[in-house]
Amino acid sequence: MNGLKVREVAIKLNVSEKTIYKWLNKGILPAGRIGKTWIIDEHSIEKLLSNSYGTKVDVSEDRLGNKNLISTQKDDQASLEKFSKILKNSIDSGIESILGPRSSDPETVNIISEELKNSTGEIRLMGVGLREFFSDKGHAKILRMMSDTDKNVFVKAILVDPVGKFARARAILEDGVQFQNDERFRSSLLYSDSWRSLNVIVNLRKSVEQRKKFMFDAKFVDYWPSVYMVMTENYCFTESYHFGKPNNESESYSIDGLVPIIHVSNSS
Known about the structure:
Blueprint: H1 6-13, H2 17-26, E1 32-34, E2 37-39, H3 42-50, H4 69-92, E3 95-99, H5 106-117, E4 121-126, H6 140-148, E5 153-160, H7 165-175, H8 182-185, H9 189-208, E6 215-221, E7 227-231, E8 235-240, E9 261-265
Parallel strand pairs: 4-5, 5-6
Antiparallel strand pairs: 1-2, 3-9, 4-7, 7-8, 8-9
């Protein structure tokens, strides 16, 4: 059998004999054997250099260690192009970022707070009880600041009617049929949160009478919102509401506030 030996091929390809043996054992470099001696013909070397795909490749040890190199590169390129397309479509659709859950990610709260502080014009809020706006924590201090400084904004909020059928259905779904009882229902967390919000809302409405630019309106509606939403003239922050109590979660009665928030621009 005519052909080249391992040492001759190694010199020809400028790699080590160890690399040639590795290619032979893995079938990357086709060859025949006479006893224990490998015999490699010129055609096998040419096939290796073209990598059987018609595409020239570097014959360094680092890059010819895998006969599927070109195929892998093609797969990586396709994945990269797909990923780039997803990013482009997201940007074209106005998606700025995906923020962490508002109940556990301080950066999310800070981003929304900064947008509220810098906002003018109309601000729309939608949610179940909007506790972070109508309580003693979260964004509530920003609303009070807007009122105290008579900022040129019009805050509009929609909340769930705490005595409506949807609020009662939520309490029964999450906490059990015992909340069909009126007295038990009025002790539910949802009912309590809504009434705490009402006190702040009443005070904000009263403050409007003494302001020239700051405006505020809130409505309690017998419905169930599909999302939590904060919308300004520049951006919108939305979080899909979810029913059910998360596993091993003792302080929360729903998954609300525990999922990511989509941050989109007004071009969306």
